[in-house]
């Protein structure tokens, strides 16, 4: 291999290495920014606090949906109970009139 070819190969390797270093630096900066954001969102410095908040918000949404479903079901049952009471009262009145 002549000196010119070796120099070009070395230049190419240095260029590739520079690109990789820039990529690693960008990834490290992104990770540092994310960690700082997580730390500032949690006073205790808990790195997973933000993730737990998202999990708890999801659970809260599910619980609200279940609660609303239960409330709707209770309303249906109360309407049915009211209807049955009205039917019973009507039957009692009919029996009262028939006994006269």
List the keywords.
mainly alpha, 2 domains, 100 residues, single chain, rod-shaped
Q: Can you offer a commentary on this structure?
A:
This protein is mainly α and 100 residues long. It has two domains: 47 residues; 52 residues. It has two helices and no strands. The radius of gyration is 37 Å and the shape is rod-shaped.
Compact description:
By secondary structure, the protein is mainly alpha-helical.
Provide the succession of SSEs.
HH
Shape: rod-shaped
How many helical stretches?
A: 2
Estimate percent helicity: over 70%
- The structure class reads mainly alpha
| Total number of strands | 0
Unreliable residue runs: none
Beta-strand content: under 5%
Instruction: Please tell me how large the radius of gyration is.
Output: 37 Å
Largest sheet: none
Q: What average pLDDT do the residues reach?
A: 86
| Whole-number count of domains | 2
Distance between the termini: 125 Å
Question: What topology does this entry show?
Answer:
Elements: H1 3-41, H2 49-99
């Amino acid at each position: 291999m002549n000196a010119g070819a070796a120099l070009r190969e070395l230049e190419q390797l240095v260029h590739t290495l520079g690109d990789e270093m820039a990529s690693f630096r960008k990834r490290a900066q992104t990770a540092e920014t994310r960690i700082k954001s997580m730390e500032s969102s949690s006073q205790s410095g808990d790195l997973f606090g933000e993730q737990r908040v998202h999990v708890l918000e999801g659970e809260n949404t599910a619980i609200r949906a279940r609660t609303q479903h239960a409330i709707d079901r209770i309303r249906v049952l109360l309407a049915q109970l009211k209807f049955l009471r009205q039917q019973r009262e009507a039957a009692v009145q009919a029996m009262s009139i028939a006994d006269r």
